[in-house]
Amino acid sequence: QWQQQQKVAFEASEKVYTEALTRNGLLAQFKAMRDAYRGNPNHAFRVVFGQYLSWYQSFVGDYPGAHDSYSIRQLPAHDDAPSPLGGGYSAKPALDAIADLAKGRKAVFFNEAHNVPLTRTVTVEMLSRLREQGFTYFAAETVYASDTELAKRGYPNAKSGFYTMEPICAEMVRTALKLGFKVVGYESEKEGNGDVREVDQAKNLYERVFKNDPNARVVVDAGYAHIQENGRYLGGESMAQHFRRISGIDPLTIEQTMLIEHPPGTENHPYYHAVIDAVKPKQPIVFVDAKGEPWTLKPKAYDVSVFFPPDVIQSDRPTWLDLAGLRKPYSVSGSTFCQDQYPCLIEARYANEGDDAIPGDRLVLNPVEKAERLEDRLIMGSHGVMQASLYLRPGKYRVTSTNEANRVVYRQDIDVQSRDAAVLS
Fold this sequence. Notes:
By secondary structure, this protein is an alpha/beta fold. The protein has helices at 2-20, 26-39, 43-59, 63-69, 94-102, 118-132, 150-153, 167-178, 195-210, 239-247, 270-279, 334-337, and strands at residues 90-93, 107-112, 137-140, 182-185, 218-223, 252-255, 285-288, 304-305, 313-314, 317-318, 328-333, 344-350, 361-365, 387-392, 395-402, 408-416. The protein is built from twelve helices and 16 strands. The chain is globular and about 60 Å long.
């Protein structure tokens, strides 16, 4: 009965999503999906459509809302390793530990939760270190091979991929390009999901990287268990398993989706808060033993597991958007940028990129009188002025604001400066 309800919910979700895409502009599309979610209290529909909504919430910069709308609880399981606490392991910053583990490897696979861009941050921050080690290719799930102008253009646009519509994912691709990586799309173009997709992804990855460049070294970003190294997956095997069989290369697999804080109503893995309470990390961490061997929650499936600290929210936005100091907050007010037209989508594009570029950051301001619900995303200043912060690298930007009709209501050129943040040259 539940499977039948899910099938009906999936069909309804696809219908809503298809209709929303006919709306003019990202803000109108997001609002249509949000309204459909709020207007249908059916449990099965909300479970299924919550994932669709969460993608678009991440696209418009509503990261707390995206995490609340869809979450996969992480229960203890028989294949879990013992806790790293008291087991001879010590906590290390994830960036340092992964850099050590990647030395000499041909392939490093990171996974992500698609609606939780927090799980993309370590990957973005690691790219410069991996490039210094000699990694030459970068590949990300749903980056489209059909965008043949991506490298020449130097930035992703709406035709570059699906998840790249989200600014942190776009920043991942943009960063790779600027660092000199060859960015490749390995997404399957065949009909069908499950093992058909996994095999084709693995084949594409091998043929577009190693077949013509045996000395290549690749960094891969993929969703969830696409990178697991053992076990059954979607009726077959994972992309990583097929890749290893095709290429003979054993990738370093970095699990980032399990040991994150889950929103209220879902469940964290019991190790999560035990580690957070004991270590009190301010940045993502991994555990290693005295020999430098990493701890992993799933020893048969992944090489290393990353713990992410709970979100710190300021002005309704998570502070991890600073990408470990690469970016800084830049305050924007609704009175100036929205011109009293709400909801209002504010986007900051690099000054040297086209108007088609996915922005460095974007957010929605939407005042609702006496709103109390989290999803209303109300940010009020001391005099009733809407304000929030974009997170941007130092440099020059074009900031535009559009209303629900997708009409530009305000433009401003800005110059973000910081002694502490790193410039992406």
